[in-house]
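Handoff note, outgoing to incoming analyst
You'll be picking up this chain. Sequence as last confirmed:
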Amino acid sequence: MSHALVLTAATGVSDAIAAVAATHAEGQGAVIEAERRLGGAAYEIILDRSVETRPLEGLDQAVVPLEGREKRLLIADMDSTMIPVECIDELADFAGAKAEVSRITEAAMQGELDFDGALRARVALLKGLPRSALEQCSAERITLNPGAEVLVKTMAECGA
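Most recent structure output, in case you need it:
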């Protein structure tokens, strides 16, 4: 059964690193059926079988069966996953309440507040924040993490 060796790295996957991973797979008897770049931060090598990966500094690797691999739905946390910031912290800065929101977040992380209570308390501090602040925050502080656009585009191309 064919498998995909997927390589990802925040700093990008170079052709040289992809070649090292491919050579390692071939050394285990795998035949490379195809290769393709999935944007600058990811690379995919299709193999005729599963292989063991070899640790490479700064590189994440996954070997997954091709059968059933394509997904139709992506569910992901936005903050610090798809974007590099916590939106509520950035909005709190516009509301002049960043220190208080940070204190509540820390209390929740320490187990002093439950998630629902902490979220309600933080959102309450944003009450009255004008829509223009949301728009300004979005325009000035919200960017996509590396790979997020490629992930969404790839999912869409696969019918998700």
